[in-house]
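Thread: Newbie trying to understand structure tokens

Hi all, I'm a second-year student working on a class project, and my supervisor (Dr. K.) asked me to get a predicted structure for one chain before our next meeting. I've only ever worked with sequences, so writing a 3D structure as a token string is new to me. If someone could post the tokens and maybe explain what I'm looking at, I'd be very grateful. Here's the chain:
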Amino acid sequence: MANFYSDIPELKFELENPMMERIVELKERGFREKDEYAEAPQDFADAMDSYEKVLDIVGDITANTIAPNAEAVDAEGPHCENGRVRYASKTYENMDAMIKAGMNGLTMPRKYNGMNMPITVYTCANEIVSTGDAGFENIWSLQDCIETLYEFGTEDQHKRFIPRVCAGETMSMDLTEPDAGSDLQSVMLKATYDEENNCWRLNGSKRFITNGDSDIHLVLARSEAGTRDGRGLSMFIYDKRDGGVNVRRIENKLGIHGSPTCELVYKNAKAELCGSTKLGLIKYVMALMNGARLGIAAQSVGLSQAAYNEAIAYANDRKQFGKAIITFPAVYEMLSNIKAKLDAGRALLYQTARYVDIYKALDDIARERKLTPEERAEQKKYAKLADAFTPLAKGMNSEYANQNGYDCIQVHGGSGFMLEYACQRIYRDARITSIYEGTTQLQVVAAIRYVTTGLYSSVINEFEQIEVKPENQAYMDRIKAMAVKFNADIELVKSAENQDVLDICARHLYEEAANIIMSHLLLQNANKAPELFAKSMNVYINLAESEVEKNHNFINRIDADQLDSYRK
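---
Reply by user tm_fold:
Sure, no problem. This is what the structure looks like when written as tokens:
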């Protein structure tokens, strides 16, 4: 019987990373709950065994329910009826399977009926579900919004809302408006305080809201009358049980058909404040978006895995000129490129998730007691690394999902253009990943300061100090040569002292940093498990060298005098 966890050994490899010991130690607080909750682990080995069992369940449900339902869900899609969303019929089967298996509230504390699992494990589950159906993953994975409510809500809100999500209720984050897409400072949904009923009231509209008819919404709204920037925005919790929000329509989209993308109308909707006023965009949405971006990175890796699965199965089965097409160099080069990008992107995804786990766990501990100086230093280090790596993981993996979906269709040839093959759905679903939760261009904006301040260079330098086996030393030398070009390019751009030059070179510097970091991560993986990663490492470093060279050439040819050629 197929299983989308156990059938992919690279996932188990990432789960067994040495950093997991520290993550589990922090998450379980020294296994203090082992006598209070029967399901709490007794020690590190017990915790890891629990994680594997959960992922095995997710892998089983995905392979044998979600993936088989994907084409029917894509064809039917959700419907809007009397201001409410009705999912595709097979979506309810998917949801029922996950709820009955208890696969909700993975990261939430046990006192709220959660599983208290690390974000790394949840990220793995996200990837697995996305391999089966990225549209359904959007619905299921938005439970992650509860992280923001847990981080900034009150204890009363925790008790009322978190157990509902752990029981399977759905969530959404209502941010975008018709005139406020990437520029969330322009949000104008109005929030006014109702003194008589001791609550807030929301009025206005939201657009492009994923799973917009969810049970519990986190809503960005303007609470400060007369303001027009981010300082006037606050975060609110809206409970569907209270009414006041209707779905005006469901968008007719290119892909992720199973996931309803809604336009919402708020009419005096009752809501409650999450956190403090005026910090909605400045603090809470930033936390929300970082979690969402990690989720889209996982979704992108899942789509790349799906593209690889479809491409290699077809290439083995399809015969031309008396031979399986997988034997043709033009085909096996495409397949090797898909796999190399998949393995590199996955390595970056889980490195990022582990950074997030450590700093988030220390943040949580800080709510219980004062951190030691060593813990504060650790928290600061991993928070910065998580902030720097998240835009790399989201941006690069979403671009790779698009490239891999494209190549998957190309492997299929004319059949790939036909709707009966899954590759066309994977290709359509992948397209949104480089747009929502911050376009790739916005990921560059988020990352560029870590280029110019030298953080990526520092990480690369640390990776260069890791010993490798003699047979891998030549690969290390090649990666070091890429880093020399990268550092020279940074200095060249900075020396121009021209913001426009920096802005137009930013994407190129971002890609250089990501390619070098992923090359190092794959080298580290191949050093430990050559049977899994040696081939991908070789292919990826070839690709990375050519990409770094391309970007290096661009940067060395651009100057302020040439900028007019790019302006329209």
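A couple of things are worth pointing out once you decode it. The mean pLDDT is 96. The longest strand covers residues 261-274. Feel free to ask follow-ups in this thread.
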